[in-house]
Amino acid sequence: MDFQSKRQFVSVAADFPGPAARKLLEARRQYVPQGLSNTTPIFVQQAQGALVTEVDGNVFLDFAGAIGSLNVGHCPPEVVEALQRQAEQYIHSCFHVAMYEPYVKLAEKLASITPGTFAKKTILLNSGAEAVENAVKIARKYTGKPGIVSFSRGFHGRTLLGMSLTSKVKPYKFQMGPYAPATYKAMYPYPLYRPEGMTEEAYANFCVDQFEQFLLTEAAPEELAAVIMEPVQGEGGFIIPPISYVQGIFEICQKKGILFISDEIQTGFGRTGTMFASTQFGIEPDLITMSKSLAAGVPISAVTGRAEIMDAPSIGEIGGTYGGSPLGCVAALATIELIERDRLCERSVQIGEQIRSFFGALQQQFPIIAEVRGLGAMCALEFADPATGKPLKEFVAKLVKACCESGVIVLSAGIYSNVLRFLTPLVITDEQLQEGLQIIRDAIASTAGTGSY
């Protein structure tokens, strides 16, 4: 049966992108720098839940969620109403000049929901990169040490320090240096490629031993302020490390006086099946960076950490004019309430199970799917040539395009850009999810063609 005839949600015309989108694309090319990448030629007109309608009336299922910013979906009514109420009261007063209650209420809420029973404090900012920058500043101030360790394939932003901590050279770092000093990169596990015959436990121990060697050969603990780690790597390809590895690195940091910063910008707020992924790895980070789905797409970020660490900077040493804007704060409070009320962490687990089950059943039919992996709804497919193991970057690029033309917005990831990642809103219905998965399956089949990739 032709699946096209069964579609309930997706509707894409044969001439996509249509005339309105083509006109806007021309203006975009004329007035916006080429350096801003665009995964799709879509210009959004309106969006609700997991559905996006563009300017020519085409309707798409959103499996990208603004790179993981929309765990509660597009335009949740509760968040829209909170924004409207706040905008009628006051839009901005700058917390440094005239304080406001939503900032304090959000800080209090984040102290209660982040891992750890110790006293915590929070600074609010604008973006994920700003959260990373400030977490590093605070760690350096508290420890009096300069060094920061990140990990291979990690991504921490496009600012100078964010790029310095990020691993992928192209497109993020090429010809953008020199980079910030006193930053180091340690190896991060890649379970799919662990040595043949080595158990997961042995592999985790091997990787922890590598980190111990790193502290002897590359960076002395006495000079390290912090380690920053994504509990599940996002841009790096949705790589899930062994639990014992993360715990091992955390324990080394505790023993050697190195702070542990958990970068939960993409993994936070239910994406992995718990409010924060750190919980599933059994650790209580000293500092946590957050953004993306914190406020349903409204720009805001946060650093929450142990109170004594957060209090290390003196008055005026951290902050910013727009940091923790009233609009962002009320949006975040409404978003967190929605996640808790509608049990979206549990829903994340259900979504992830459906995605992994669906594609796991297709691996024999499509041997180019090297692995189906995920934690909660943070799922991915890695594509490689089954004969050579070569990462299929060009194939995934074509697949992303084919999915879009068929009505599903998806993103690639990974150091080789050969990973298809799923960041569906957690409010997506089972019917919408299954329709999207079927479309992606058909796109894989059509893109794979005769097996020449």
UniProtKB/TrEMBL annotation:
It is an enzyme of class 2 (transferase). It comes from Paenibacillus taihuensis. Its cofactor is pyridoxal 5'-phosphate. PROSITE patterns: AA_TRANSFER_CLASS_3. InterPro entries: 4NH2But_aminotransferase_bac (IPR004632), Aminotrans_3 (IPR005814), Aminotrans_3_PPA_site (IPR049704), Class-III_PLP-dep_AT (IPR050103), PyrdxlP-dep_Trfase (IPR015424), PyrdxlP-dep_Trfase_major (IPR015421), PyrdxlP-dep_Trfase_small (IPR015422). One of its GO terms (biological process) is gamma-aminobutyric acid metabolic process. The keyword Transferase applies. This is (S)-3-amino-2-methylpropionate transaminase. Its EC number is 2.6.1.19, 2.6.1.22. Keywords: Aminotransferase, Pyridoxal phosphate, Transferase. Belongs to the class-III pyridoxal-phosphate-dependent aminotransferase family. GO terms for molecular function: (S)-3-amino-2-methylpropionate transaminase activity; 4-aminobutyrate:2-oxoglutarate transaminase activity; identical protein binding; pyridoxal phosphate binding. Gene3D superfamilies: Aspartate Aminotransferase, domain 1, Type I PLP-dependent aspartate aminotransferase-like (Major domain). It catalyses: 4-aminobutanoate + 2-oxoglutarate = succinate semialdehyde + L-glutamate; (S)-3-amino-2-methylpropanoate + 2-oxoglutarate = 2-methyl-3-oxopropanoate + L-glutamate.
